[in-house]
UniProtKB/TrEMBL annotation, chains A, B:
Key words of the record: Transferase
Family designation: Belongs to the GST superfamily. Tau family.
GO BP field: glutathione metabolic process
Domain GST N-terminal: 6-85
SUPFAM superfamilies recorded: GST C-terminal domain-like, Thioredoxin-like
Residues in GST C-terminal domain copies: 90-209
PROSITE patterns: GST_CTER (PS50405), GST_NTER (PS50404)
Name of the protein this chain belongs to: glutathione transferase
Gene: 11409927
Gene Ontology molecular-function annotations: glutathione transferase activity
Catalytic activity: RX + glutathione = an S-substituted glutathione + a halide anion + H(+)
One Gene Ontology cellular component: cytoplasm
Enzyme Commission code: 2.5.1.18
Length: 221, 221
């Protein structure tokens, strides 16, 4: 619980998986905060002041100090509030958590979007091959109920987009029997009480997916 | 200094800026280690076993535990050996260090390569514009002798490619008067005793740059 003299604010957009990541981290820690909705395409002056580099949500503001980039924010939350650790304490296990969450952002997230939303079937197929190759690494990595063991941790939160696609988007990323461990994890993650509480409605998630899909399909400038 | 019963091994390729990053971190900490040279294009079975995901140097192996990705390795080194900290201890300052080192990899490094090595002048010019926009953020961020204050830290090590280009490659990234603080930092960084000791010869760096430039200029598969 944040102390009374602390001010924690989250600038987000409903349905953004990167914002949901931060919301899960805050909820796991039990940190009360003020949520401020930002409109994609019409960001506030405050957002642009706090994140002039990427001009994107999420931004966490703690006692006036802004932090951007979801993985950076989660590590900050884990270090600023010690209760209910998100990363393990052992340096080697921490390194693996950082490695796999970085891997998810670099090798899985974009390929996942493209495999579902690219208008051209050949491009979707190419993205799907890349994605399946990457997911196989994650499938092999999954040894317990969650990547973090019996509780969800940094890698689970990073891999959030998998259950979002599998359970919400009506366009599954992969057939359930192709990656059985990821499929089970996906359900367990989605049914975790903290995740359930934080997750926006299906309609809100659809709305975000649809807007992002439209921007991905548009010719790049 | 690593304890006698510890085994630290670095798999690298001479001239790789990402390997030099790790070498600087090890030297700052005073960690003795065995260096194993890997040939780009003909990587060893050991390398492929330790880094099946990216199949790239550097890989650090500590008591049999392999770690890949230079920024992940440096954070590991900083957490496994406590002397001479590379990241600050304050959570907010740590978050900023992570943010800017990530920014360097995402927004500066590739643009820097392209601005110098792309065969097409228009593509070089486009990359140069992107790079200058990114470097302006770093120029504004530089408030002391180093990004880390009076000593080099995580962001300085990440920004290594700037002095490599400015002082070694004979094709400067930017005119010295365009980013005066970065230009001064570049010289200070390059003349830091630990950096000086670790840096390979100009010939070795040229060799690496040349090989990378050739692969960048080749049509992508």
């Amino acid at each position: 619980m944040a102390a009374i003299d602390e001010e924690v604010q989250l600038l987000g957009s409903v349905g953004s998986p990167f914002v949901i990541r931060v919301q899960i981290a805050l909820k796991l820690k039990g940190i009360e905060h003020k949520y401020v909705e930002e409109k994609l395409g019409n960001l506030s002056e405050t957002l642009l002041k706090y994140n002039p580099v990427y001009r994107m949500v999420p931004v966490l503001v703690h006692n006036g100090n802004p932090i951007s980039e979801s993985r950076v924010i989660i590590e900050y939350i884990d270090e600023a509030w010690k209760q209910n650790p998100i990363l393990p304490s052992d340096p080697y296990k921490r390194a693996l958590d950082r490695f796999w969450s970085k891997f998810i952002d670099e090798k899985c997230t974009i390929a996942a979007w493209k495999s579902v939303f690219m208008p051209d079937e050949k491009e979707r197929e190419k993205a799907r091959e890349e994605l399946f190759e990457a997911l196989q690494f994650l499938e092999n990595e999954l040894k317990d109920k969650f990547f973090g063991g019996e509780e969800i941790g940094f890698v689970d939160i990073a891999a959030l987009f998998i259950p979002l696609f599998q359970e919400v988007a009506e366009k599954q990323l992969f057939p359930g029997d192709k990656f059985p461990k990821l499929q089970k994890w996906s359900l367990d993650f989605y049914n975790h009480p903290v995740v359930k509480e934080v997750m926006p409605s299906k309609e809100q998630q659809f709305g975000y997916f649809k807007a992002r899909a439209a921007s991905l399909a548009a010719p790049s400038k």
